[in-house]
Write a structure and sequence with these properties.
6-stranded mixed beta sheet, 20 strands, 5-stranded mixed beta sheet, about 325 residues, single chain
Length: about 325
């Protein structure tokens, strides 16, 4: 009866009475093959196409290696399937995708599940040896961990952490700022370590979000910004009441084309309004200003006037003033 190779490492199993005088050689190869199954080997994809890696019967073969590096002589242009054969082998591999072309490889055995390994990554996979419908599974994809006791974490390069699920993660030492942590195990301690407050100011955990419109000044500083010089065009007014809004701009202009009432702004502030007559019938009256003074408002078409408007609140009382300056 001839030898068989039906085991998961494709070792030669000598039939009773066979291999007279050579059984020692066969046994030695088998032992070396078993050792190879704990080592590291390389398989190369010779072309830019799907490939099959077959574990050979009864000979030393890198495909048997526990740590298997897959390279490619050709630069891959798409994700390629790598079939592990025979499809009756149930085995664990750590497979490294070291192919060229920056493409993923998909590890399969039969028509069942597969595992895709991105370029440059490694995965620990297992085949179930289920024949034509055999599956490949990533045995670390749902790794359950208990307590992790970390004394020191030192990162010499970039550290990337995806989804991390653990029963508990216990750090016996605070992760220092230089190692990507806060240097503390409490919120108050973290704010102190990061320079975000003192013990007297740590009753609140809220911090103002970054905002380009927020101004900060020490008591000795002079405020030199905060007003806009953009001119707001309020358009042509022909009737009703025109009430300037300080939020539009500190500099505004409008055209007087009819009988219009100038109202008092509803908030505190000051602005300059350039008014241009475009109708000899245009008239501007004022409403509710505390004080109005300056030049007379003529109705001559084309004449321009500066209207200086100020409003300020004192307690419950509002005060407003309008000063008119004719420019012709």
């Amino acid at each position: 009866m001839p030898s068989t190779f039906v085991n998961n490492l494709r070792l030669e199993e000598i039939a009773t009475g066979e291999k007279s005088g050579t059984w020692g050689d066969v046994t030695n190869v088998n032992l070396e093959a078993i050792a190879q199954a704990f080592g590291r080997g390389t398989e190369d994809l010779s072309s830019d196409a799907n490939a099959t890696i077959t574990l050979q019967d009864g000979v030393l073969d890198d495909a048997r290696s526990f740590s298997l590096k897959i390279t490619s002589s050709a630069s891959l242009t798409a994700t390629r399937e790598v079939t592990l054969a025979p499809n009756t082998v149930s085995k664990v591999w750590v497979i490294e995708n070291a192919t060229t072309g920056s493409q993923s490889i998909t590890i399969k055995q039969g028509s069942g599940t597969t595992v895709t390994i991105p370029s440059g990554d490694s995965a620990m996979i297992a085949t179930d040896g289920g024949g034509a419908s055999a599956n490949v599974v990533d045995i670390l994809s749902s790794l359950k961990m208990g307590d992790i006791d970390v004394t020191t974490i030192t990162a010499s390069g970039a550290v990337s952490v995806g989804a991390l699920t653990a029963a508990s993660l216990a750090l016996t030492q605070d992760l220092q700022i230089s190692e990507g942590g806060t240097g503390a195990s409490t919120a108050a301690g973290a704010r102190t370590a990061l320079g975000l407050g003192t013990a007297a100011t740590q009753a609140s955990t809220a911090f103002e979000a970054a905002d380009a419109d927020i101004l900060k000044a020490d008591t000795s500083d002079n405020l030199t910004a905060g007003f806009t010089s953009d001119v707001h065009n309020a358009g042509t007014k022909t009737s009703g009441t025109f009430t300037p809004s300080f939020s539009d701009s500190n500099y505004q202009r409008f055209v007087l084309g009819g009988s219009v009432t100038l109202g008092v702004p509803t908030t505190n502030g000051t602005c300059v309004v350039l008014m241009t007559n475009n109708s000899s019938a245009g008239t501007l009256t004022t409403s509710s200003y505390s004080k109005v003074d300056g030049d007379d408002l003529t109705t001559t078409s084309g004449h321009n006037f500066f209207l200086y408007i100020t409003r300020m609140t004192n307690g419950s009382a509002n005060f407003s003033s309008l000063t008119v300056k004719a420019l012709q």
